[in-house]
Write a structure and sequence with these properties.
The protein has 153 residues and is α+β, with helices and mostly antiparallel strands. It has helices spanning 22-28, 76-93, and strands spanning 40-45, 50-56, 123-134, 138-147, 150-151. The longest helix is centred in the middle third of the chain and has 18 residues, at 76-93. The relative contact order is 0.21. The chain is globular, with a radius of gyration of 15 Å. The chain has a five-stranded antiparallel sheet, with helices on one face. The protein has two helices and five strands, in the order H-E-E-H-E-E-E.
């Protein structure tokens, strides 16, 4: 993937226009406390199967003290979790699996690459795109994480 091969170009969404805040996210996603990895949803395009949200990375995240002392870097697994939560939110909101399930589980990832560090103070913008849906079974999405217009994951 070329460095500027965006799933959705940043000019197509407005980070200042929140369409779902943390309270709406919590209505659909069950993660709480340290495991909440979304701050807001800012864009949805049902026709294209796209959803964009973000995580404001705070200096008091549970991993900051130990990953790594004196040079905090967001763990890649947390970036992947943010993408999984955004996919779950979008799937639940639009009942893409046709299950009306209480929880959508995370099944795996392929071809994930970490390109640049994400640090406290960053806003990690996550874009997910529906690739295919097998009703009542699974949804496959691709995702990207972006900080200041650079694809970081």
């Amino acid at each position: 993937m070329a460095p500027r091969d965006y799933i959705i170009h940043p000019s197509e969404y407005d980070l200042g226009t929140v369409i779902a805040d943390i309270h709406e996210i919590r209505r659909l996603n069950k993660q709480r406390f340290e495991m909440e990895q979304l701050t807001a949803i800012v864009h949805e395009d049902e026709a294209r199967g796209l959803c964009v949200g973000y995580k404001d990375v705070a200096p008091d995240e549970f991993w900051v003290r130990g990953h790594f002392p004196g040079m905090a870097v967001m763990p890649g697994v947390m970036m992947c979790e943010a993408a999984a939560q955004l996919s779950s939110y979008y799937t639940q909101k639009h009942n893409l699996l046709g299950l009306d399930a209480q929880i959508v589980g995370f099944g795996g990832m392929e071809d994930v690459r970490f390109r640049e560090p994400v640090v406290p103070g960053d806003r990690l913008v996550i874009a997910v795109e529906r690739v295919r849906v097998r009703p009542k079974a699974m949804i496959v999405c691709r995702f990207q994480g972006i900080v200041r217009d650079s694809i970081v994951v």
